[in-house]
Design a protein that fits this description.
Layout: E1 5-6, H1 13-16, H2 36-45, E2 64-66, E3 71-76, E4 79-84, E5 89-92, E6 98-101, E7 110-112, E8 118-122, E9 125-129, E10 135-138, E11 141-144, E12 150-159, E13 174-177, E14 182-187, E15 190-196, E16 202-206, E17 216-220, E18 222-224, E19 230-236, E20 241-243, E21 254-255, E22 257-261, H3 262-267, E23 270-273, H4 279-298, E24 307-311, E25 315-317, E26 322-324, E27 328-330, E28 333-335, E29 337-341, H5 352-367, E30 375-376, H6 385-402, E31 406-411, E32 414-419, E33 424-425, H7 445-456, H8 463-469, E34 484-490, E35 496-505, H9 509-518, H10 523-530
Parallel strand pairs: 12-23, 19-24, 20-25, 24-29
Antiparallel strand pairs: 1-30, 2-3, 3-4, 5-6, 7-8, 8-9, 10-11, 12-13, 12-16, 14-15, 14-17, 17-22, 18-19, 19-21, 26-29, 27-28, 31-32, 32-33, 34-35
Helix pairs in contact: 4-5, 5-6, 6-7, 7-10, 8-9
Length: 546
């Protein structure tokens, strides 16, 4: 997303461990290898094919079910339909399958039911846990029996949003609930208790009956995986100035954390992380936690690659902002992937759109296959099909996870935005593909994102897009459309130099649309998004299916 070179692209161990066709013949299908505007004319004259559901109604275990905490699946008219639950609702199966308000939860949070039974949030759903004694309720927490001395409070962080015109960051900061942060109480160096802040940032921790001067409560920008160990975090690399992404983190590298004395919180339980304390890192973690939950919701509760996001205020990176599935041992554990975020005066850490974009690459690395095509790219400038697919997916994921079509970022002192729903940008004219150039033409990454966005918003659920990303056809080389990876450089004027076709198979947008269509996605929605007669000539009438 226009941030210079993009490299396609962990902690608390003690605590957690496409010859042609004849357009004059009505209703005559195009040849299988057809490309270009002539073929597109044939394609658009064809009748709409019947959408083939990926799952027959008789295969459903019940007339309806929850496909994870955010997706409701039901049989209607002999076809399986999916519906994404609203932001503040969760899919439940009792007493009937429905998206119900007030049931959403953060993994690791507990609560008491009206009958005083203990419930724990696991994989985005509440589940009952056995308790020998009745559950005792506390703000943001439930305990089996009386917990003894406790301290309750709320964690918030100061963050800035774009102004109304998306020209700069707002002058005033807003207090935002710190959801899903790990919070720990200490008596000196001894861990007394730990939990995860709930959706409102609330917590209740066991504390010492007689708190001393060294007793503290610490909030960490860290989240746990299914095994209970820290699996994602935001960390200070302890490096200053311009750095290469290959740089080794400094000896003082640490997960971002914020501390208050127990005595201080006892008198004033509102724990607000200020800008001067690095609340920008908290904003990044908020996005990281949302991405982690969104992916788990879409993929049956499975964790993604353990990931650390590096943010050091005053530290910049050779890639600008980027992600790579490069393992690193740091902060007391092995991380399988990394995100690098700039800490300069642009304060881009406030852009949840940009941070979520980088995590879109993480989703692809965790559940799909990267084209492995990285190099310089710019807003409004078409790039190679592999890179356009990778970057376009990442921007679409950002829009889907945030439920907003507007991408925004700030670079070189200037804020810019891209609106996928309007195909508009604040910094350049929108560049669309040309039908006569074929499926493997260079494409603007934002056009790829706009195609995905427009197709997805035509349905009640974006789940088919996540299914297509992880489909066997999208993760098996060689890919059906025959694209091969390129490497290149750009000169000071942005012109391409040293272009090399490596001959290595790589997926692209057309392969993804094949996977989507082969699952039964409606042709009308794909054609409406691609405009095959004039823009991207994807032959939706004849996808290449395994």
């Amino acid at each position: 997303m226009g941030r210079g070179v993009w490299v396609w692209c962990w902690a608390l161990v003690a605590l957690l461990g496409l010859v042609g066709c004849d357009p004059g013949v009505e209703l005559t299908p195009c040849a299988a290898d057809c490309e270009g505007a002539a073929c597109a004319a044939c394609v658009t004259s064809l009748p709409e094919a019947t959408a083939r559901p990926s799952l027959a109604c008789d295969q459903l275990p019940a007339p309806s079910r929850c496909l994870g905490p955010r997706v409701l699946e039901r049989c209607e008219g002999g076809a399986v339909h999916r519906e994404d639950c609203a932001e503040d609702t969760t899919c439940v199966e009792a007493p009937e399958v429905a998206c119900v308000s007030g049931t959403a939860c953060v993994d690791g949070v507990s609560r008491c039911t009206e009958s005083r039974a203990l419930q724990m949030c696991t994989n985005g759903r509440w589940g009952t846990r056995a308790c020998d004694v009745a559950c005792t309720a506390a703000p943001g927490r439930g305990f089996c029996g009386a917990p003894g001395p406790t301290l309750s409070g709320t964690v918030r962080y100061a963050r800035r949003f774009p102004d109304a015109e998306f020209r700069t960051w707002g002058l005033e900061w807003d207090p935002v609930p710190a959801r899903g942060f790990l919070i720990v109480s200490f008596q000196g160096t001894k861990v007394l208790d730990s939990q995860v802040t709930d959706d409102a940032g609330r917590f209740t921790l066991k504390v010492s009956s007689a708190s001393g001067e060294d007793d503290r409560v610490v909030v960490y920008a860290a989240g746990r995986g299914r095994d209970g160990a820290v699996a994602y975090a935001v960390a200070d690399p302890a490096l200053t100035g311009a750095q290469s992404v290959t740089a080794v983190p400094g000896e003082a590298a640490r997960i971002w954390s914020w501390s208050r004395t127990t005595r201080e919180l006892s008198g004033r339980p509102d724990f607000t992380l200020t800008e001067s304390e690095g609340s920008g890192a908290a904003a990044v973690f908020d996005v990281l936690g949302t991405a982690w939950r969104r992916m788990r919701e879409r993929y049956g509760g499975r964790d993604g690659l353990p990931v650390v996001a590096w943010l050091g205020f005053g530290t910049t990176w050779s890639c600008g902002a980027c992600f790579a599935p490069w393992p690193v041992t740091a902060l007391g554990r092995n991380w399988e992937s990394q995100v690098w975020l700039p800490g300069d005066s642009d304060a881009a850490w406030w852009s949840d759109a940009m941070v979520m974009h980088e995590l879109g690459h993480w989703v692809m690395a965790s559940r799909g296959t990267s084209p492995e095509e990285g190099g310089p790219h710019f807003v409004g400038v078409p790039t190679f099909p592999g890179q356009a697919w990778s970057e376009g997916w990442a921007t679409w994921f950002s829009a889907d996870a945030r439920r907003s079509p507007r991408y925004f970022d700030r670079q070189g002192g200037t804020m810019f935005w891209v609106d996928l729903s309007a195909r508009a940008s604040s910094v350049s004219p929108w560049t669309r593909p040309r039908a006569e150039a074929g499926l493997l033409q260079s494409v603007d990454e934002n056009e790829v994102a706009a195609i995905l966005y427009r197709a997805a918003t035509g349905t009640a659920s974006s789940q088919p897009f996540y299914d297509a990303l992880s489909a066997p056809a999208m993760n098996r080389s060689p890919w059906a459309r025959g694209y091969t990876r390129h490497t290149w450089k750009r000169d000071e004027k942005g012109a391409l130099t040293d272009v090399v076709d490596t001959g290595r198979p790589s997926p692209c947008l057309a392969d993804f649309l094949d996977a989507l269509m082969c699952q039964g996605f409606p042709r009308t929605l794909v054609d409406a998004a691609t405009d095959p007669a004039t823009a991207f000539p994807y032959p939706s009438h004849e996808p290449l299916c395994p």
